[in-house]
Amino acid sequence: MLMKLSGLVIAFSFSTMVFAQGAPVVNAANAQGNETVQERLDRLERLLAGRSQGQGEMLEQLGRLQRELSELRGASEEHAHQLEQILQRQRDIYQELDRLSQQIRQSAETPVATLPNTNVSFSENESENEAYDRAVALVLQERQYERAIPQFQAFLENYPGSSYTNNAHYWLGQLFYAQENYTEAKKHFSTVVRDFPDSNKRADCLLKLGMIAAAENNSSEAQRYFNQVRSEYADSTEAEMAGRQLENL
Questions:
Q1: What is the rounded distance in angstroms from the CA atom of residue 114 to the CA atom of residue 107?
Q2: Rounded CA gap, 104 and 177, in Å?
Q3: Phi and psi based region of residue 159 (left: phi greater than 0; alpha: psi -120 to 50; beta: remaining)
Q4: CA–CA separation, 135 vs 152, rounded Å?
Q5: Of all helices (H) and strands (E), which one includes residue 55?
Q6: Pair 240, 229: CB distance under 8 Å
Q7: What are the pLDDT digits (tens) for 132-163?
Q8: DSSP letter assigned to residue 44
Q9: pLDDT in tens, 80-107
């Protein structure tokens, strides 16, 4: 009996091994080999679609980066242009102050008998003369521009009928212009142009009003002022400068 059971177990084990060895092995290669033509085409289409989508996303990202680069380049060029305009205004201001300083020194060195007609009569009021000289000295000698503004304002308030009134307005216009406070600068330059037609500062005031209009992007008003300078003061330095300003509009 025992021997019969052992024989059955051995026979069963042998048959199991044979059955296992005879079973077919299915791998990826056989799976692909068993694909139909349609299934294979479908799989290739899916692969191509996935690749095309990836390429499209990369192209879209590249285009976005190119647009951002163009925007940055444009912003950089605009900032460079604005900086150049600011530097040019500063150069104009410094050149004007130096020119005025030279005019004052030349006038001081010229003998009284040969002084040109500057349309300025000196006051007999010593305190008035001292107040005006003190304000001018803050600009030309001490270069204390911030302190000079209240000095000229106080002078206009204390001596409303002074023969220096037009000059005080002119200096205030220059000082506010240097600060780019165009509202106040226009007020004082316009006062000289309107109320003092014989002032030797009037041509420069017209020129400065044109430059302020140009800085404020008001081209039509700037052209009007520059053309007025060239028309009324044709042979002056201001007319030459107005011509250059017109070329830059």
A1: 10
A2: 20
A3: beta
A4: 6
A5: helix 37-109
A6: no
A7: 989 999 988 888 889 999 999 999 999 988 98
A8: H
A9: 666 666 656 555 665 566 555 555 545 4
Structure tokens at 193: 């142009």
Residues in the chain: 249
User: Two tokens at 194?
Assistant: 């309107």
CB 190 within 8 A of CB 213: no
Q: Which residue has the tokens 């220096």?
A: 164
Fill in the amino acid letter for 202: R
Cβ neighbour number for residue 224 with a 10 Å cutoff: 14
Q: Which residues of 119-157 are buried (b: 16+ CB within 10 A; e: fewer)?
A: eeeebeeeebeebbeebbebbeeeeebeebbebbeebbe
pTM for the complete prediction? 0.53
**Residues 161-190: b if buried by 16+ CB within 10 A, e if exposed:** ebbbbbbbbbbbbbbbbbeeebeebbebbe
Q: Read off the tokens for 156.
A: 């206009």
Contacts of 32 (CB under 8 A, 6+ apart): 40
Rg (CA), the chain: 45
